User: Fold these one by one.
Assistant:
Number 1:
Amino acid sequence: MLDAIIATLAATLRYSTPLILAALGGMYSERSGVINIALEGIMLAGAFTAAAVTVFTLNPWLGLAAAIVAGLATALIHAIASIQFKADQVVVGTAINILFLGVPALASGALFESTGSTRQLEQQYTLSPYAIAAFAVAMVPVSYYVLFRTRFGLRLRAVGENPEAADTAGISVERMRYAGVLLSGVLAGIGGAYLSIAQNSLFTRNMTAGRGFIALAALIFGKWHPVGAFFACLLFGFADALSDRLQNVLPIPVQFIQIIPYVLAMVVLAGFIGRATPPRAIGTPYVKETR
Amino acid sequence: MKDALKELIFPVIAVVVAFLVGGVIVWIVGDDPLLVYQLFFASAFGSVEGFGYTLFYATPLIFTGLAVAVAFKCGLLNIGAEGQLIVAAFTTAWVALMFPGWPAVIVVILAMLGAVVAGGLWAGIPGVLKARFGAHEVITTIMMNFIAVGIVSYLTKYHYNEPGDPILESKAIAQVKDGVVTGPHIPRLHDVLAPLGIDFPSVLPTNVAFFLAVLMCVAVYVFLWKTKWGYELRAVGVNPSAAEYGGISIKRNIITAMVISGMLAGMVGINDVLGFRYRYYDGFSAGFGFTGIAVALLGRNHPAGVFLAAILLGALHRASLFIDIFTLKVSKDWAVILQAIIILFVACEAIFRFGARRLLPRKT
Amino acid sequence: MSDDTRYAVEMRGITKQFGEVVANDHINIAVADRTIHAIIGENGAGKSTAMNILYGFYTADEGEILIDGEHRAINSPKDAIALGLGMVHQHFMLVEPLTVTENIILGAEPVAGLAIDFRQARARVRELSEQYGLKVNPDARIADLSVGQEQRVEILKTLYRGARILILDEPTAVLTPQEVTEMFAILRGLRDQGKTIIIITHKLQEVLALSDNITVMRDGRVVGNLPTREATAEGLARMMVGREVLLRVKKDEARPRQAVLSVNGLSLRGAEGNAILEDISFEVRGGETLGVAGVEGNGQTELVEILAGLREPSAGEILLEGKRINETDTHERKRRGIAHIPEDRHRRGLLLPFDLASNLILGVHRDAPISGSVLLKRNVIIDRAKRLVREYDVRPPNIELPARALSGGNQQKLIVAREFDINPKLLLVAQPTRGVDIGATEFIHRKLIEMRDNGAAVLLVSAELDEVLSLSDRIIVIYEGRIVGEVDPKTVSEEEIGLMMTGGRAGGGGRGSLGREEAASTGTRHPAPDIQDKI
């Protein structure tokens, strides 16, 4: 019995880790005022790159580093389009998600002659899931500190709430937003790498399976707060672990457990239980008033 | 006419640039871009059969493109067409299964209504949440997508699956034997056109849902630009304050736009369930709901544009299969990438505008 | 001011032109060190432009600025801050979910290691707030503060950045009377501790009570510089509004009929329970024009929107030809004959990307003959559009153009055409000629008189005193959400009406003396909530 509990808790942590990373990443972006529905695509980019680089270098740490670069590059596309060119942030996010449905598949065909997977890695070439899990958990207080204690965090929050006020205080709205979006690239990229070279030992087609969106739901359910998002991720990870373990025992079908995150996110958005208010400037490009 | 051409400029540039970038990708992967372009045109437009398939793939995209466009005309971004069409497709099959032994015509009509109503309701929920509580429709429609997938796959697996069928699909609503379909369904183009002396290949899955799609283009055009309701909906999309001043209810129009959007997305279910597979098949949608965003953007949220854009992206879908087979390295995912690039470029129209501004002398 | 006066700020020969409009015409303002200097004038007199130039938002076309006697180039607010200037905008620049301290230090945060040194920041905020009597809890969230407290935070923001010269734009516009009293004490305290303060305002009583020196502006020019002790309310009012009346509108004597609009005890409370409109009652009869005079932001916008059915009043009754219409919506009111020319044609009045024909049906688009039960009647719409464009001389007369393509004057004519064509019983007209050229202004005025002569009741709200005086048959003056008096445009002097508009004193036949009412008034105003925010 105790074993089962411990195993479930361990599984909860394993399932939660990529969610925590992506949700914290999304938090930086959204706190700066850029809605980030591209977390899914960024994770896919990170997951594929990590696996592919590890296959060729047999060094998962290089794979992880490459995932960060891939996440950054993907986030940069988002930032340039939505901050520089003031494109609709949601449309850009959707395009990125579609893009990284295709890119890993095409690249794996070219590199591995497969239809969307990388070669399987041997155990020794993967990272310990718990190492990354520990990093993810550590990022929670770190993010809290960054967001609420540092100059950077204060400015980030100000830019996401009232860019005009931040601007008059001499803060570059664009620069802060770039920083927020790029940070989401780093963290979601690591979250992707976790899936392919820590939790598993290869990349498979669409392996994120909506985790980017669950992370988004967790971020909303956690009211854009690092600790809140963390617990939301744990809750969703626990639901996953539970449905995994008790697949044939549980009276509730697994599909219903899987939709819990989304239902909860909608419920708080509508304000049925404690309203979640997004950063006020979210989704709107900042256009300096031209006088 | 001049206006229409002006509207076309940026989408055309975006498509051309996207195809060029796509060519570069082909080259990087290690294939011949020219071969790919050639395959694209030959397979999608080069034969009656190829074009027939293009139309078949364009059909759901016309529905979802119109769905996104209608919402957009009211200032809303419906990211949830995918969920709406899933719920609608399941409902189509479900309704058809509910009335065994009834005359096929009546069942078909009821099933079609089911599709439209289910899609409309599924989109109406985010509409109400937006109008009533101000919940961001983008987030709620995304969430509704996943909820749709969860509920529908549950129902399919546990309640409407043929016992012993390992595939996640519902029971069949009509039977096919020796090319003859018995049971509720809508006819394929071959069967409709043959009496008129037109020999449309019988292998093609293209069915009368394509006509419905064309009809919907016209209907949406008439609705948006010729009726008082369309006028109100567009007014809210352009300037809610002014609309309110003109006695137009912002809330009511938000809900209306979402419901209509969902109804249009729901018609995808008619094409797939009643016109092609004759059952609900889990995973039938190749991301039609998301491609609909590309279609609407590319088509400038106008039904005529949506139609053309849907043909283009339908062609891309059709051609991707051939490109996959007849090239060494390029897989069908190339088409998916191209679609993403098109969306990015259309969304970042400013890139081209900046370019144009730099090239052209500035007027002051 | 003696010759050895030291000046904190001198603006010499400052000129600024926006397109055709000369916003500042060679203005000279000298602000003596350690004084409170008021700049007064009507809307559009050029006060804000001058201060925005001083603070580096705009660059002057001509002229020079001296700070503490030295020539300075101020090209951005950053330059201004470096020179010790601080500005408190009328619309506060605060981040609501952040705390007072966080807002004050934003952009100039003290750090210790990696983190913000909140202890030091808080101590500094507390120190400043005690030194200058700006009481506010450093740890409170902005969202939880009253408007008066928010203003203190704004002032603290400037002080935290080392401002010696403070510019306050309409600082009392959003405050309750008690808060105004407190703010005066704070500002005096700041002056006594060595700060120089410039306030922009149009409220005469406040100017007289608070300032040391006054600059009066009118039509982009400085028309007076004087020490406050030499000023009188009457004199200032004359300087502010007394000008040649440029508009001479010929009109016959009104022949009023029965009351078309009756408003009884109308009140409106803001989100915080503050009174925006207080017990407003009046009547407009058919065949007459009732003018509403007042400085903008005294509740006129809200009044018109309530009458048009765009807002719900907190109390009071609205009667159209004796029938209560409180419960009817905007569309129904239009159907019953209420036309409305909104004050902001871009925000409310037009669908800018739509073509002229489509704009001309807004509000009547649901009714016959414009629409059938389903389809809009294209021919009717086009014929009507062509006719209206011709009758109202909208140029260019191409009904397929988007409304955006028209000039301000023609856009306004478009709205006038649309509203007058419903053959209204009552016209709600707000700022009908704002940003409109002379030709269109004359045209619109003529049409307004024509409508009146044909028996319509006209309620005219305008910030242009000339306009109100020349078009109205009767005038009510509104100040801080109350009617402070009714005057006869034929006999009232501009000085008198100017005084009433600026809270100077109540006019003849008004509703009691303002001096007493002002002390008891709880009227505060907030910027109208942006409806677009809600959707």
Number 2:
Amino acid sequence: MKRGFIFFILLFSLATSGHVFAQSDIESRIRALEDVLKKQAETIQAQQIMIDELKAEINKKTEVAAAPESKEKQTEVQTAPKAAGLFGGAAMSNPNISLVLNTYGYSSNLTTEEVRNRSIAGYTTRGIDRRNGFNLEAAEVALYAPVDSFFNLYATIPVTDDGAELEEAYFVTTCLPRGHQIKGGKFKSGFGRLNSQHSHVWDFVDAPLPYRAFIGDEGFSEKGIQYTYLLPLPFYAIVGVEALQGDNDLLFGSDAASGIHAYTAFVKASLDIGDNSTILFGPSVLTGKTKTDTVAADSDFSGDTTLYGLEFTYKWQPSKDRGFKIQSEYLLRTQSGDLTDTGSGLVQSLERSQDGLYFQGIFKQANWEFGARYDILSLFKDDYTLAGEKQDWGRRPWRASGMINYNFSEFSLLRLQYNHDESDVTGKPNDELFLQFIFAIGAHPAHKF
Amino acid sequence: MKKLLISFLLVLVLTTPAAAKINIVATLPWIGSIANDLGKDKVKIKVLVKPSQDPHQIEAKPGMILAARNADLLMYNGLDLEIGFLPILIESSRNNRIQPGKSGNLDCSQFINAIEKLEAVDRSMGDVHPLGNPHYHLSARNMMLVARGMTQALAGTDPENASFYRANLASLEGRMQKKQSQWSKIPLRGRKYIAYHKFFEYPARDYGFQIVDYVEEKPGIPPSARHISKLIASAKRSGASGILTTAYHGKKEVHALAQKTGLRSIIVPHDVGSAAGINDWFALMDAVLKSLE
């Protein structure tokens, strides 16, 4: 009886204590349970997603299971981080490689001999390296890859009829503090607009007259070092300076001085006007010591050269199928020094200050592009003073061009261009017709502005 | 003169304000939308590609380079979709934080399992993507994975606000799950469509519809007349409920084909902002699935 009573008491106290506990805490416990359930549901859902993904993966794997290396690949997929799409996922051992073939047919009213000897009197004795018939501008091999997490490396090797040439081979830093960058090796100078582009992305087959007269047909690529800074402004503005060896044989000449003898500085600024329009503009200047034989026939020039440039580009691109682009550059070159006749040894002082401008417009419609260009020399400045006497080279040299090109795809292009060239003021005009093909294979080309 | 220039530069460097918000540069509008849901008022987002532009085609414009210069985090689609402008943009940005391999460089595709990876490719196959189909954003399944990855990146860049980003992720995931169960009820399973471009493969996987044919013979290459006439013949037999395309993929060809076959042409909104009222990724998915109905 006593035992029964104690048992009863115990049972009662247990029951009541349980009851009291439950009453005071029941809501929070239910909530806790709900939370647990919710979390489980979430986990299950997440797991379901993962299961689905794995299923898909397995399905894919079984599809390719016939391949003997599939097992190896599976572990590779699971362990290795996925290749980021940025550099094409190419294997680490291979840099990104591309080849651009730039070739054209050429027809002129002049003979090949006349074309090759066609100089611009007062400006350059250099002729045009071109033949009636088939021409190979270059098959250009380009390589690039990150070196490590500090540098990217680029090389451009155009192979021409004369063999392979190292046009560019340079590093670019990717590790400097925000805004700063150094480029070094051999590279296209940042001076001007066309100069810093490869000729196969130009809108016309050939360089405009001011380039021919002052820089050369391909622009100038120099050994040296470049520093640029992208300014922390509300609009795009970049400043750059370069120290260059000075090999270009119109501007400098490799023997002009025993060391580094060419320097450039440039500013490029850009503004977006609305959603579809962008302008890019800025001045450039270069200065250096010069020793060259391209000033006058049978003469060597030795002295100083300064070239000023002003560039302007406007692009309107409302859609991928339509667009309009205006591009212009003004160049002014001043040179002073001595002109030595290689025959007689006669030395005369030479001061020349000459300018030039090109202006071009390109209209794009679907795969077609239509363009026109006008080049002129001696626009505002035409001083050529030899031994204190001003020389008169006759009327202004000029040239007008029209072109149509068709892009089969982003990687192939067919271009028809016509030039009427009045740059040889004493000789005949040169009416030229080009039919150009450009093809690119390999790594995807960069869409620069 | 030199001194003046140097002092000018110094002033510029020293007076640059320290950014309070995290600067995010997103290549595509949907990336900006998801990042905005996670970062809210703690981030400043700049989207580079406009909804009217094709990311395959655009150039690295100076204004985009400037934006990338100031970025703390660069978020991009990946799978080579931005191959034309992104490598040059990143290098020209002169911003060491967003270089490949750095924590500020976020390839969103790394979080998903890409479909249609190709083993051997060349460009005669058209504008192909060897790393997989890059149009993965019309899929809630993928977006949940991307949002998680983005949250990790945000928390890494801005550890002080990590719990804020994680809380936003939790509510975003909740919304996605809720919407996903609604979207799954839309009766698309078993439906057949013809598509202009390989743009709808992920939603087809998720919602069970089929793409039976493509207007493009090869990706990125406009179709030939011969291919079109072949399509006209086969379209009627295919049982397709419509021809799908986006605002920048061959609208003209699809309309012409629709007229000739009697099939419905459906312009599917391709990204956030591509049509009025599509202000975020949820609205985009709503509009995409509604257009397929």
